[in-house]
Amino acid sequence: MKKNPHPFYRHGISFLKASLFLSVTFYVGKCLVDSFSLLDRSILVFRFAWITAGLLLILPSPVAGAFVYKYVYRQLATPLSLPEAFVLLTLPAVGKYMPGKILSLAGHAVLARTFGVETSVACAAIIVLTLTALAAALLIGFMLIPIDIPGGVPLLLVASAVSAAGIVLMVLIHHRSRKRSHNSLSESSHDPSRPIRIPVLSMGIVFLGMFVQVGLLMTGVCVVTMGFVSLPLSAVPAFVGMSCLSGVAGFLALFAPAGIGVREGLLLAMLTPVAGAGSAAMVTVLSRLIQTVLDALLGCTGLVVLRKIRNKLPSPAGN
Fold first, then answer.
1. Which residues, other chains included, contact 261 with Cβ-Cβ below 8 Å and sequence gap of 6+?
2. What is the pLDDT of residues 282-293, one digit of tens each?
3. Sign of CA dihedral 202, 206, 209, 211
4. Cα-based distances in Å from 240 to 2, 198, 218, 226
5. Could you tell me which residue, 227 or 181, shows the higher pLDDT?
6. CB–CB of 156/142 below 8 Å?
7. Which residues, in sequence order, are bridge partners of residue 149?
8. For residue 82, which phi and psi values (nearest 5 degrees)?
9. Pairing state of beta strands 148-149 and 153-154?
10. Which of 80, 188, 64, 183 is nearest to 125 (CA)?
11. Phi-psi region of 99 (alpha: psi -120 to 50; beta: other; left: phi over 0)
12. From CA 243, how far away is CA 213, in angstroms rounded?
């Protein structure tokens, strides 16, 4: 029988998370305030063409993501409709703004359960989708970031090795987890012979789909942000790469809801040598604001789609 952790341990972990979050938030907040003191108000603009172009890049992103989600579940022998896949993509993501990001993962499993998906299958899908998204963001970031590590070693070479290690780790975790999921599935499924397995070629297709989805989303957010801050077109690739890397760091910081503080601190540090302290601070704050508004809009859209799906289900009285 599994023992519950000692209360001192639980409270200690909570205290550590809170301390880390407050320390990072204070440090990043101080850096932003100092940077804003150097801000040149002339960089603030309203470029309608940039904003429109960014929105046009963002719009196909959730559609591409929904197709990837649908493909993964189909590979797991659990077909979903495209609206159901869209709900699983957009609605649970709002949970990342809660501490620990547990609600995001648990919300995915709970919603998948309402669509008739077994929990073991949903957990396997979460692992595959999360790791491929992180690997895709890392690869995009490492491909586009122009900064060199001190000592003259190109960051791209080191980052490529880290990215390759991450992809290998993703595959290992996937193969390890699918055995456990298969055992769980064999005990609870109506079809015990059905394995939880995604072929290597299919994993490559999933990664490619996530690469497109993440690339469209992050590029769109960056282009919209630059519609309000006067930065040259040549800065877009670097901005996208830095946003991807800082986003991954924010996701891995479990103590920070939605990576708040960690993402901003890393993005500010990387952007300052490229755009200057004042411009980097403004871009950092605006990109966070745009990302939050986008997550809220997608979450609301997912909720609307979920209600329409449920309204189409036959009522118990009709049976």
1. 21, 24, 25, 27, 28, 29, 253
2. 888 889 889 888
3. negative
4. 45, 30, 6, 11
5. 227
6. yes
7. 153
8. -60, -40
9. antiparallel
10. 80
11. beta
12. 14
Residue with tokens 């009522």: 315
108: region left, alpha or beta (phi > 0 left; psi from -120 to 50 alpha): alpha
What's the pLDDT tens digit per position in 137-152?
998 988 888 655 444 4
Answer whether 122's CB lies under 8 Å from 112's CB. Answer: yes
- Interior/surface letters 181-220, b for 16+ CB within 10 angstroms, e for the rest: bbebbeeebeeeeeebbbeeeebeebbebbbbbbbbbbbb
β-bridge partners, 154: 148
The predicted-structure confidence for 200-211, as pLDDT tens digits, reads as follows 888 889 999 999
Please give, one letter per residue, the 3-state secondary structure of the chain: CCCCCCHHHHHHHHHHHHHHHHHHHHHHHHHHHHHHCCCCHHHECCCHHHHHHHHHHHCHHHHHHHHHHHHHHHHCCCCCCHHHHHHHHHCHHHHHHCHHHHHHHHHHHHHHHHCCCCHHHHHHHHHHHHHHHHHHHHHHHHHHCCCEECCCEEHHHHHHHHHHHHHHHHHHHHHHHHHHHHHHHHHHCCCCCCCCCCCHHHHHHHHHHHHHHHHHHHHHHHHHHCCCECCCHHHHHHHHHHHHHHHHHHHHCCCCHHHCCHHHHHHHHHHHHHHCHHHHHHHHHHHHHHHHHHHHHHHHHHHHHHHHHHHHCCCHHHC
AA letter at 195: P
Tell the residue number behind the tokens 């540090």, with chain if given: 269
